[in-house]
Amino acid sequence: xxxxxxxxxxxxxxxxxxxxxxxxxxxxxxxxxxxxxxxxxxxxxxxxxxxxxxxxxxxxxxxxxxxxxxxxxxxxxxxxxxxxxxxxxxxxxxxxxxxxxxxxxxxxxxxxxxxxxxxxxxxxxxxxxxxxxxxxxxxxxxxxxxxxxxxxxxxxxxxxxxxxxxxxxxxxxxxxxxxxxxxxxxxxxxxxxxxxxxxxxxxxxxxxxxxxxxxxxxxxxxxxxxxxxxxxxxxxxxxxxxxxx
Length: 245
Prior knowledge:
By secondary structure, this protein is an alpha/beta fold. It has 8 helices and 7 strands, in the order H-H-E-E-H-H-E-H-E-H-E-E-H-H-E. The radius of gyration is 17 Å and the shape is globular.
């Protein structure tokens, strides 16, 4: 196993926290942090970009959309303190990637094992929608994480935005052939290169989980598949039947 340069990773995380590249997102995250919502009125909001976090030597990389306005934008850690995080950390705990099934704050002793969590954008966007230029502005951070995280074998993209961002980043880094971006679909896989596979999952948003578009079994199956690929020496056939070569 290769060792990730933790100093460089920490420096990148610090740079992300100070980022002000997107005026619309800066204004929105600060507005939300100041106005708050009634249920969190007594809490001090983070109100800054969320850096990636987890195991620097991780073989699993998760790429989400962006921090939630009253989740990561409040707590300072992605998927922490919101309903999507409830689903994510429960699934990670079941598959052995997290030491506990819940995450409510940066001080709750959550530890990720063999997993690193990041996102397409690091600031909470209005209506959870990013503009194309905001995705482009934030892409260099994801690319730098990909370069620094030396042992990643499987990338799980949560939602189509995460899928597109992950694939585009690997393609621009020339670690996968310059082919057309593969279509998104839950359980779809794309072999990026000899050692890395991209897996698609519906995002565990309330819109998907409340409607049953994404069930707990569907979500858990994604992480079981990731675990299987990580522990195998060669790429195996995709049990979902949606291989993209």
